[in-house]
Amino acid sequence: MMMSRSLLRAAAxxxxxxxxxxxxxxxxxxxxxxxxxxxxxxxxxxxxxxxGKAVTQSxxxxxxxxxxxxxxxxxxxxxxSLQTLRAAMDSRAADAPAVRTVLVSLDPxxxxxxxxxxxxxxxxxxKGLIGLGGSVEQIDAAASAFKVLHQKRExxxxxxxxxxxxxxxxxxxxxxxxxxxxxxxxMPPADMAxxxxxxxxxxxP
Length: 205
Known about the structure:
Elements: H1 5-18, E1 46-49, E2 54-56, E3 65-70, H2 77-91, E4 100-105, H3 113-120, E5 130-133, H4 136-145, E6 150-155, E7 161-166, E8 169-173, E9 179-184, H5 189-201
Parallel strand pairs: 3-4, 4-5
Antiparallel strand pairs: 1-2, 1-5, 3-8, 6-7, 8-9
Helix pairs in contact: 2-5
């Protein structure tokens, strides 16, 4: 899925604005990994998981959580990002802190709990990937809290009918649901793993 040029530019500007600092040098994380200056990202969420259960940020307290905003009908960027994340998670040290992975759908019309359950169970994606969806209002509120840019684009000549153009970032939240790191989905697996570990090793903004 190709983002519109205006949205892509806006996403890049937003990422730079949210992440003026670099990672801690000791963590040896890539420059596009932001672990400082990100305290304005994140907030309460009220969504529905792939089992139909209502969840909030309280359900994720106690363990680091990595979020990605996308949708099940995304033709390329989302599955590629999640596959890359799987490789990154698999490459982390055996004794590294466990991190839950979550896909937050930006497509309330199509991504029902049943659809998300099938999607997140793909063997190509991180083990235990959780799918979250909800109403338009719930999803828009979550996207707004994480400064996620997204817009519906009609594709009348396509079998899917429409796509969701969106920014493509990963958001690492600490056990206290405060931001620890933000990084683009275009990073190679080794850099993703380094960013995750750097975020967990650093101080909460």
